[in-house]
Amino acid sequence: MFKTLLIALLSLMPLAAAAQPLHGVAMHGAPALPADYAHFPYANPDAPKGGKLTFGVVGTFNNLNSFILKGKRTTARGMWDPELGNLVVESLMARSRDEPFTMYGLLAETVEMDEDRTFIQFNLNPKAHWSDGRPVTPEDVIFTFELLRDKGRPPFSTRLKLVEKMEKIGDRSVRFSFKPEADREFPLLLALSPVLPRHATKVEGFDQTTLTPQLGSGPYLVKDIRPGERIVYKRDPNYWGKDIPAKIGFDNFDEISIEYYLQENTLFEAFKKGLIDVYSEGSPKNWDLAYNFPAVQRGDVIKEVFQPRLPANTLAMTFNTRRPVFADLRVRKALTLAFDFEWLNRSLFEKAYRRTESFWQNSDLSSLGVPASPRELDLLGPASAKVEPSLLDGSFRLPVSDGSGRDRKILKQAFALLREAGYHIDGGRMVGRDGKPFAFEILSQSLDQERIAIAYQRTLSALGIAVTIRTVEDAQYQERTQRFDFDMIFRTYAATLSPGLEQETRWASASRDIQGSDNAAGAGDPDIDRMIGVILAARTDEGFKAAVRAFDRLLLSQYYAIPLFHSPEQRVARWKHIDHPATLSLYGVQFSTWWDERARK
Question: Which among 280, 217, 260, 231 is positioned nearest to 580, based on CA atoms?
């Protein structure tokens, strides 16, 4: 009787809804594209296939493994490349560059996930196979995550820390069940993760540099390698994914050659001669003055300016707060005030740049000019006491100098802060309470950075501060920055409309002492840690915007870096046989969708 009653009662209870397969997953809300979408909006499905692209970069390479610490900065471009495309190694899902953060099917055809995002299941595309023809399997996915956990570099080495269980489901699915501390962005980061073949990846020695090409599932194979000089890729005619929506209009060249140059001016000269097909110009001054060569005048080289709809990246001179000289917030603020942007912009850059004053400038995520809302103040809580009043009321601006390079009024403000921190002038030199001169080194890696450093050195000499400048080649720069062996460096903080876990690697206490992490500043503040958690936990667009703005105010108040300048445009010159889609993505230029017009003939 009791058993019969229990069965009857259970039959009346609603069953838990099973997670349904999804074609995509967005950080906030739903994917913009429907399940039956044909291609990404910024890709041209009628782009011709064939021809060749020759791309140039400054630097060198001695490694083909993108996922290890030793090769973080000297891996050949293209293997796993956000700018040129992941030519050899692919991720579980493909990111649309026309949405803030949305992933669509690639190696994983669909995903399953509950509303609270306590797990995600990747259902592999049955067509997916490696370039040797063997299928991509759940065992490959599990193998890769475990290998990168043990021998990879951050952030790949940390991906499993928030995973309670990783298991094979059925013949072609892998499910990740999360620990309670996992955030809502975490499933998307797993979707961005690479997958390597278990049968063709050597575990022993994986963490060492290598020039042996990695077997992948991507659209290209490695054709030729000249270490430090050139790597050439050829299209894989048997690429499994050429007809899936996320790949329509992509990977249009039969061959992609990436040429390495030691200096930027040498690369530019190669472009002028037609040895390089496209050139991304970072200097507005050069854009106006350096493109008067015959190929431009004939119309063989085309100059184009693109307007992405993204917050500006933050180029900054970053303090290493692990060094005692920069441990005091007042010192960092004083040195920030002393930077004369107006002199630099006029004297070196023909007034081409705008001053950067927010980590998410030119977007709704920026705190610049916007008073803190009640919601932001609530999110900050007691940490609002650390935020400068001008950053809370929206009036914050970095000082505007008289453009002399030594604005006495501003230098007086900086000197007052240094005095508060215990410094004084002795014999024309700034010295601390211990009698030691105030001195530090700026580490640079290019002539352009060196020019900025020299201008700053000149300004600080008026305060009796001794600045030395050391410009080093790429390998030494990599080695020193990975060990945090520097006082101050130039750093670019890439900005997106969906900041998330990358903020942990840049600013969180947990990344402060991990060699190779992006926490160049040595930040280690519990309030910063908590605010990163608030960003990651946000479920609505409004809650997310409030969290990022509050975080922006907190970061700016700590003066971990001197924000320099930015230009909102992307400037690209190309030889006329290289063309691109008419529709520009939210993120701007996407070279992986460009093509060679000569292939139409």
Answer: 280
Q: How confident is the model at residue 114 (pLDDT cuts 50, 70, 90)?
A: very high
Q: Evaluate whether 109 touches 123 at the Cβ level (below 8 Å).
A: yes
Angstrom distance (rounded) from CA 156 to CA 172: 23
pTM as predicted? 0.77
Q: What residues contact 512, with CB distance under 8 A and at least 6 apart?
A: 322, 519, 522, 523, 524
pLDDT class of 14 with cuts at 50, 70, 90 = very low
Backbone angles phi, psi at 110, to 5 degrees: -145, 170
9, pLDDT greater than 70? no
Stated as kind and residue range, the H or E segment containing 319 is strand 314-319
Q: How far apart are CA 253 and CA 248, in angstroms?
A: 13
- DSSP E strand stretches across 218-308: 220-226, 230-235, 255-261, 278-281, 301-306
Task: Kindly provide the b/e burial profile for residues 208-238, where b requires at least 16 CB atoms within 10 angstroms of the residue's own CB.
Answer: eebeebbbbbbbbbbeebeeeeebbbbbbee
Q: Which residues pair with 194 in a beta bridge?
A: 91
> 3-state SS of 12-76?
HCCCCCCCCCECEEECCCCCCCCCCCCCCCCCCCCCCCCCEEEEEEECCCCECCCCCCCCCCCEC
Look up residue 400 and give its DSSP letter: P
- How many distinct helices (H) and strands (E) make up the chain? 16, 25
- Predicted local distance difference test score (pLDDT) of residue 18: 56
Q: Which residue has the tokens 């601390």?
A: 432
Residue 232: phi, psi to the nearest 5? -120, 135
Contacts of 366-369 spanning 24+ positions with Cβ under 8 A: 366/311, 366/549, 366/552, 367/391, 367/394, 367/396, 367/549, 367/550, 367/552, 367/553, 367/556, 368/394, 368/396, 369/394
Give the residue-averaged pLDDT of 493-519: 91
Confidence band, pLDDT 50/70/90 cuts, at residue 72: low
Give, in degrees to the nearest 5, the angle at Cα 559 between 553 and 563.
Answer: 85
* Other Cβ atoms within 10 Å of 586 Cβ, number: 16
DSSP 326: G
Cα dihedral sign, 73-74-79-85:
positive
pLDDT of residue 464 exceeding 60, the answer is yes
pLDDT of residue 541: 85
DSSP H helical ranges for 314-429:
329-338, 341-349, 374-380, 389-393, 408-420
Element (H, E) at 99: none
At 202, list the tokens: 């050597």
pLDDT of 474 higher than 80: no
Among candidates 378, 367, 127, 121, which has minimal Cα distance to 243? 127
Residue 571's nearest CA partner among 379, 352, 249, 401 is: 352
Mean pLDDT across 18-36: 91
Q: Is the pLDDT of residue 500 over 90?
A: no
